[in-house]
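Appendix B, Record 12. Input sequence as logged:
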Amino acid sequence: MKQNGSQKRRTWQKSRFAVLSMTMIGVVYLLIFAYIPMIGLLLGFKDGDYLYSFWDALGSEWVGFSHFERFLTDMDFRSVFFNTIGLNLLCLLFNFPAPILFAVLINEVSDRRLKKTFQSVTYLPHFLSWVVFGTVILALCNTNNGVINRVLVSWGIVDSPVNFQREHFWGLIISSSVIKGVGWGSIIYLAAISVIDPQLYEAARIDGAGRMRCIFSITLPCISPTITTFLLLNLSGILGNGVEQMMVFQDGTIDNEVFDTYLLRQAFGGFDGSPHYSYATALGLFRSVISMALLAVSNAVSKVFTGKGVF
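Logged structural output:
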């Protein structure tokens, strides 16, 4: 019996060796590129600003929470912080339900060719970089010869061309995000809808339920765990914006600065042209702590009210 047990253990080790090796590759990758760089978090508590060497900054004087006090009392940072919160809440309001609604609508299309056509057209913008996609949007909104401004002026909606980049920055960000991400974001929800038991719909139709009743009584409740998971993840990233998108649409003023672009400018040049390594590290650590707290709180609230959560 002992020999059989040892033989089974040896067999288990040999059969799982490839799986363990592949797992270790991921662990080593995370260790090198995710955990070891956390040593740099010490910069947030040191006087490393204006030093052009990372190692010189890491070995600089310990200053405690002075960098945190600095940006919390900075009026520019307050403007950036409220811009980020306001913009992301509006993006969450419009961008989060859009893929869900689109997935439900696509699921109701019975013609397979038409369904695939809609999916292909809406997926395409996701594969374009923000530089390309944003440039197209800005060209359409151009004040001199943009198609949108020409239509608005010719139809008498506005008296003169509108500078969307300056006057309607938030609307430009939200609408472009919806257009670019609605198709790709619906893939997960379509996958969740596809595993719903068709007999549920058949039974509902026998009982006289229409399409809307099936959507609200079967489709949405069945995909609610997926919706909850993505909602919690979106709430945890309330301080994050796409740097590429912001860099394309921003006009360089503090009025439309957000957390990510503010942090990037501070880290690699600041507004005075000098790198602020310690200050930027403190900003990044502040955002990470807030994001983790939001995820924990929203997950706890979700478990209390819905019984579902990420962890």
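The chain has a mean pLDDT of 84.
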